[in-house]
Design the sequence.
């Protein structure tokens, strides 16, 4: 059984500093970008609830897309791991794809997290039938300069977003991946923690692209292929690199997230078997 939402949240809060007290260095912006950023900050648009505190607009906003489908007991743990991230300015777009359970907004265990001004819940007008459609619904609504992803049964480790954002700033890369952990029936497997850069054919056959490892600069034109039967995240990453004109990307060689495999409901309609 997964760790309960209450115990995970309590453990995170016990050592969680205030995000606003952890600044990354200012980054260079064009005059147009700075003007837009200042206007968003003044209007409170990026959080949807309040203007940014002073200086936050010097940092890039990171949007985390978190689709969920019929896992009301697990999604809180995933959301808590995102809200516990420090050193970054973020928003969380929760995509509600529930079919057999009440809407996310009615989940009593999530009420405190949903009141966080960094969190927005999106309910697509047409219920997603697969993970690509759910993530695309999130991409349609993100307001960040950078985008990352998390599935509702997985968790970020502390510092995940800051490490990938910092790597992007240091290397100038538009897409950064990272190492991760897979939990299978009580066993742990650590993957992708030995190679700091992938280039050429290694991007096609050497790198792993489970969606939560992907961290990329926002691209308003690119979406996940809703018709792909498998490897939608791999196709998305390769298409992204191709649009940028180079098959090259850095990898943060640290275990920055935990993925779980299990039986249970999935956003892909008709697919409810263990991975």
Sequence:
């Amino acid at each position: 059984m997964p760790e309960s939402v209450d115990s995970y949240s309590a453990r995170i809060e016990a050592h969680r500093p205030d995000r606003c007290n952890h600044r990354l260095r200012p980054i260079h912006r064009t005059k147009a970008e700075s003007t837009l950023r200042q206007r968003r900050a003044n209007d409170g648009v990026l959080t949807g609830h309040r203007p940014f505190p002073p200086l936050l607009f010097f940092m890039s906003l990171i949007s985390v897309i978190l689709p969920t489908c019929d896992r009301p007991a697990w999604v809180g743990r995933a959301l808590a791991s995102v809200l516990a991230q420090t050193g970054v300015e973020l928003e969380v777009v929760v995509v509600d794809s529930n079919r057999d359970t009440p809407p996310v907004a009615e989940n009593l265990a999530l009420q405190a997290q949903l009141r966080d001004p960094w969190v927005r819940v999106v309910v697509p007008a047409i219920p997603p039938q697969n993970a690509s459609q759910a993530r695309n619904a999130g991409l349609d609504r993100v307001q960040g300069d950078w985008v990352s992803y998390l599935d509702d049964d997985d968790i970020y480790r502390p510092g995940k977003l800051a490490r990938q954002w910092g790597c992007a700033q240091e290397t100038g890369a538009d897409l950064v991946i990272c190492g991760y952990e897979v939990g299978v029936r009580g066993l742990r497997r650590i993957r992708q923690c030995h190679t700091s850069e992938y280039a050429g054919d290694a991007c096609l056959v050497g790198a792993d692209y489970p969606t939560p490892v992907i961290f990329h600069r926002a691209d308003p034109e690119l979406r996940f292929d809703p018709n792909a039967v498998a490897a939608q995240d791999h196709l998305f990453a390769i298409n992204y690199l191709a649009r940028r004109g180079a098959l090259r990307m850095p990898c943060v060689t640290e275990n920055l997230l935990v993925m779980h495999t299990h039986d249970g409901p999935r956003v892909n309609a008709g697919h409810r078997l263990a991975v």
Observations:
- Residues 47 and 118 are 6 Å apart (CA to CA).
- Residues 12-57, 270-275 have pLDDT under 50 and may be disordered.
- The helical segments are 5-14, 31-43, 75-83, 111-114, 131-139, 160-171, 201-205, 232-244.
- The domain at 5-24+59-260 is CATH 3.90.550.10 (Spore Coat Polysaccharide Biosynthesis Protein SpsA; Chain A).
